[in-house]
Amino acid sequence: MKPYIEWTKEELVAEKARLEQEFAEVKAKGLNLNISRGKPAAAQLDLTEGMLTVLSKNEDTFAEDGTDCRNYGVLTGIPEARKLIGDICEVPAENVIVYGNASLTIMFDTVARSFLKGVAGCTPWNKLDKVKFLCPVPGYDRHFGVTEYFGVEMINVPMTPEGPDMDMVEKLVAEDDAIKGIWCVPKYSNPQGYTYSDETVRRFANLKPAAKDFRIFWDNAYIIHHLYDDRQDHLLNIIEECEKAGNPDMVYEFVSTSKVSYPGAGIAALISSEANLKEAQEYMNFQIIGHDKLNQLRHVKFFQNLDGVMNQMKKHAEILRPKFEAILQVMDQELSGLGIASWTKPNGGYFISFDSMEGCAKKIVAKAKEAGLTMTGAGATYPYHNDPQDSNIRIAPSFPTPEELEIAGQVFVLSVKLVSVDKILESK
After folding, report:
1. 262, 283, 304: which is the final residue of a domain?
2. Can you tell me the distance from the alpha carbon of 157 to that of 177, in angstroms, rounded to the nearest whole number?
3. Is the separation of the CB atoms in 173 and 207 below 8 Å?
4. Rounded-to-integer distance, Cα 236 and Cα 355, Å
5. 288-304 per-position pLDDT tens digit
6. Do 173 and 152 belong to one domain?
7. pLDDT value at residue 313
């Protein structure tokens, strides 16, 4: 297919008329489709039904070490839950504290603690003139929301298929002691689905920050969320690499089962060095007497071990894979060769990243909405919701059915074509 930019003005005008007619027909259907958030579908939630009844009587509520999970205590999590999370993340159980249901809560809490009490004996961030974070972009909007809430200055770092631009990361953290952290989704990143290369992970572990209290916020949300059995990304273990580099305290790793068991009823954990976990625990002593140990126990009894978790993830993949393929197929068929867009084809995770022509993303999202398709707001994948190029759009295929996604894909590509043709006609 010839790129739109090579079409004559007359050809583009005719194409626009055709597309507008097609759009009017779609709009008349009164569609109500949503691909805005990475939510598991009901079919995925059904996979975990056994967890609802795995604890059915009082005798079931005791941990392996005899702990009565109905009562107070065990701040760091029951041993078998720490081991299960440790096995998922390939770290010893001693490196794990199991919290409540949400890793985002732990991240927010960690930033809050840094502002209130400081990190590793350093000045609390609320007493500093300036606090800055590096933000790989496009990235996760809720990460940026946390640091924006605390008034942190966020600095964009371009993402590549290998991970963040490490030349830029190394230079910035070495030169500016106001830079206290970096947000990372290292495996099947949100939204591109990229996985950091071994070199990138090693360069992270060997950073030489000017700030002694600099920390890598390693949100490993999609560590086991593969879409294919025969095509899976591998991520080097950041905890091990930081230890090798003599920087064991530089990383906070976060993980949860929100998209493994139940969002809102999973278990989440902080994985880090002994010193970092001790600091977190001291803070927790004033917050809580113990998280939901019954829920921790439910997870362990239901999954049993790492094999049980991975078998569950295969079932998730069987549901998710056709959805990703449905919308990717539509984009491949309808947009390839037109020279107006590019998109990622991830091996896992929950998202596809789409890049339109510069200055078109907001118009595309608005156009799709007009036809009954709700998408993640343009700009959401950048700090302050400000995409300098106005080109990135996050696509979340997980919740609708494959049939709905095929329709959503058609609405989306139609919107992309219309906005792009208008953009090109402006210069003809």
Report:
1. 304
2. 17
3. yes
4. 28
5. 999 999 999 999 999 99
6. yes
7. 98
Which pair of tokens denotes residue 218? 């390693």
How far are the Cα atoms of 12, 204, 217, 270, 387 from residue 253, in angstroms, in the given order? 50, 13, 6, 6, 27
Beta strands in 172-312 (DSSP E): 179-184, 215-219, 251-256, 268-271
Establish if 53 belongs to a structural domain: no
- 237-264 pLDDT, tens per residue? 999 999 999 999 999 999 999 999 999 9
DSSP single-letter state for residue 101: S
CB burial readout 146-157, b (16+ within 10 A) else e: bbbeeebebbbb
Average pLDDT score over the chain: 97
Q: Is 177 helix (H, G, I), strand (E, B) or coil?
A: coil
Q: Compute the distance between CA of residue 341 and CA of residue 356 in angstroms, rounded to an integer.
A: 4
Tokens of 281: 């625990």
How much is the pLDDT for 167?
Answer: 98
Q: What is the pTM of this model?
A: 0.97
Q: For residues 285-321, b (16+ Cβ closer than 10 Å) or e, as one string?
A: eeeeebbbbebbbbbbebbeeeeebeebbeebbebbb
| 22 and 90 both lie in a single domain | no
Burial environment of residue 271 by CB neighbours within 10 A (0 to 12, 13 to 18, 19 or more): buried
Helices 166-175 and 198-205: crossing angle, nearest 10°?
A: 0
